[in-house]
Queue: 3 jobs
Job 1
Amino acid sequence: MQRHPLLASMPLLSVVLLTATLFSNIAAAQTVHTTDIQSIVDAAVKPLMAEYGIPGAVIGITLDGKQYFYQYGVSSITTGQSVTEHTLFEIGSISKTFTATLANYAQIEGKLLLTDMTSDYVPALKGSHFDEISLINLATHTVGDLPMQVPDKVTNNAELMDYLKHWQPSFAPGTHRNYANPSIGLLGMIAAQSLDKTFQQALEQTLFPQLGMTSSYIQVPSSKMADYAQGYNKQDMPVRVNPGVLADEAYGVKTTATDLLHFVEANMQMHPLAKPLQTALDETHTGYFDVGMMTQDMIWEHYSYPIDLEKILMGHTQEVVFGSTPVKPIVPPLAPQQNVWINKTGSTGGFAAYAAFIPAQKLGIVLLSNKNYPVPPRVTVGYQILTGIEKLQK
């Protein structure tokens, strides 16, 4: 092996000492870099946990292909078991991004067309407003003004079909954004059925294994219950998500920070995946509707980047989350972008979650906690951490 020309004339001992010094400096730089990230995360997360009385939280960060995990507190107040990156959390509506991925996957497999009408796949809805509501509308919260939750009176699939068949919207499909669990839940049901599986089977036997997510579930097996964090509501009472009609499809995933961060990386094309699945992930980032402050993709929401925190928070106000927002269709749909901030929040009665990533920078974050607390603070913390890490790179 030839020595570098600049080293060729140096005595061997000098070369050894210089090389050792260089490696020492590199190692020191990496240590400082890791310490700086820890400081940024601590400064953002510790006050958050204190303010909202959060028992446990874990933050996962991906930066240029390297992962960092930071754990705080306990997964159960009763047992005092520490949170780790392998603790199972409910991720609430972040589950919807898997539902959208499954629908794209089914389309690529030739099982459905997202431009088809909903009633084409659900005969019970023939002759209803779902004759004019496409699967894309189901995936973008643009069906009309369905309620956010499936009504309590709906306890089985037959009652669901009856409710949806008689539902009378106030808006035409594709004109307003109304965040609703029934619409994405219906899409998940259709996608799974097109693959001849239940939704649980479609995720646990098809999607999760292909994604390399080995600790993700709809139904947590008994062998993993010890890893399942106890959730706490705003009154600090222990709770876990209740089963219900379309609950699995809309907010039923339980996963770890390790698996969810792996999913974020897969969304940034950072893992070798079979083409059908990678394409399915990529297509969830297609922009279908201009909501004003943001672009509505298939469940994911994106903002042009760089962006101020205030503008991201505009997409997470009570009015946007719970109200009806006029939208403009993007024709043709906007192809997946790189210089964007892509995010999704998720909540159940006792858990809160957030995922965000910037494809152009291969930079992303997941925040998981076992207490339900407001959305704006978790979005703020995610923004503070990612932009703080950005500054370290400059």
Job 2
Amino acid sequence: MGFFSAARQGRKDDVELGKGLWRRAHDRFTRGLDRYHQILEGLEDEALYAELLEIGNDLSALSGRVRQVCVAAQRYAPSEGLDIPGPLAGVHRALSMAGNSLATTAEAAAMLRLAIGPVPAGAESVRRRAASVLEQVNDAERRLEEAAAAG
């Protein structure tokens, strides 16, 4: 991404996500995805690479959903700071947990990359952690729908 397109995207993000809580949740998820994919660079075991890449693609597919939740949350309860709006506390908690789980997923992938010799369980530990990211994104969406229906 060039300088001008990055600046344009930053302005779009400011409008859609604000500069507070929801922007931070979105950006943290995006950084976690970037980190996960950085770990795959230079991985020499082709079978492990293919397995981890598939997991990474599944995680990347969640990025648009996380953005939609954050954009909708910003419209519902605009945030320019770090105060968590009461009706959307559960949404924020689920997004925070998804970001944390994504970080531990990247960490598990890094541990596999550093393993010496054959890895008996393959990428199962990474897959389990990635499944929890999906559950937490689903939870954030559900909680946002519930808050919108209630209020």
Job 3
Amino acid sequence: MGQDGRARDGRDRAGRAFWLKQLHRWHWISSAMCLVGMLLFAATGITLNHAARIEAKPRTEHREASLPAPLLRALAGEDERKGVALPAVVADWIRGSIDVDVAGRPADWSADEIYLSMPRPGGDAWLSIDRTNGKLEAERISRGWISYLNDLHKGRNAGPVWGWFIDLFALACVVFSATGLLLLKMHAAQRGATWPLVAFGLVLPLVLALIFIH
């Protein structure tokens, strides 16, 4: 090999070493970021797949109260509104009296009732106020931790911040998988089973879907 060939070979080795270093760095960073989330989503994937076999025992809490006359006057009227929050003073009184946080939550106002639906991961809740006499009823239903984690898996009633987290988590998983694939490519020459295993991971779900899903 001539001097030019050795120089070119040295540059190739340096380039390969650089990319290996970068891929390993991004692979371990993304794996560290994904680790807990991947364990959570993998575990809840199993519980969701067997949801019919996992018995949930909902726990229901029902509370009642009556709004003081001054606060009832703040809700007086026969107007109908959609998605309008309760006045802050009323929301504060409800939180202090029955420990239900309705501040800023959209409510549906009819001529005789105000109704708030408050679904949440692993449960549900609602609150109603009679605009004529101030009678207040609230109910909170909890279906347990498994249901809570299952709903987090689906992003159900978890709010926009959790939705942003799922997007960022998915992006980190893409980086983890893509860097892993590139590392497989760079090491495939020394590991003959690499591409057959990758192909098996692709073909198996396709075959199962074509044969057993109708």
